[in-house]
Amino acid sequence: MKYCSDGCRSHKPNHVDKEIENLIARMLDEETGSGAENTFSASGGKMGNRRGLVSCDEIQAIFFQDKHLASDTEESLSSQKLGQLRAERRERVRRAARRAVVFGLLREGHSSASSIEVDSNQTADTITGTEPPQLRKCEAVVNGAVVEPSFAKGDWCVRWRS
Questions:
Q1: CA 57 to CA 59: how far, in whole Å?
Q2: What are the C-alpha distances in Å from 43 to residues 46, 47, 57?
């Protein structure tokens, strides 16, 4: 398996990381219920065109709010432990975003509502009307400029590569 950095090599992705990657893809696709409708970019932004950008902080806020880990866990922790927990969550989201930039995200095909003609040479995906999963690449954006994900500092964003 390939890793984007030594940090990712020492923190192998698990099911939670896959859920974060799926949330990133859903937010970039602006799917209903993904939380993308509550982000800064969905409101049009105040500083230029941020359409299609999703920041790591927004991903973190939506993912961990949806998991209800914030209220239950944070009340029972000291301020030092709470700070460590928030830093671990922030870094987990950033690692998932770096993987999305370096390796891309696998997006499931969407079923089509149009009528489909059955031909003897068609595959099952064509007959059922679903497209096969496709790998889509992302890019890291800091202050409007595309950067390598290893150089991204602060609150950086991801968007689909065009």
A1: 5
A2: 9, 11, 16
Chunked mean pLDDT (size 10), the chain, 162 residues: 64 87 90 63 48 88 71 66 88 93 79 41 53 86 90 90 84
3-class secondary structure per residue, 98-111: HHHHHHCEEECCCE
Separation CA 3–CA 6 (nearest Å):
7
b/e 72-85 (16+ beta carbons within 10 angstroms → b): eeeeeeeeeeeeeb
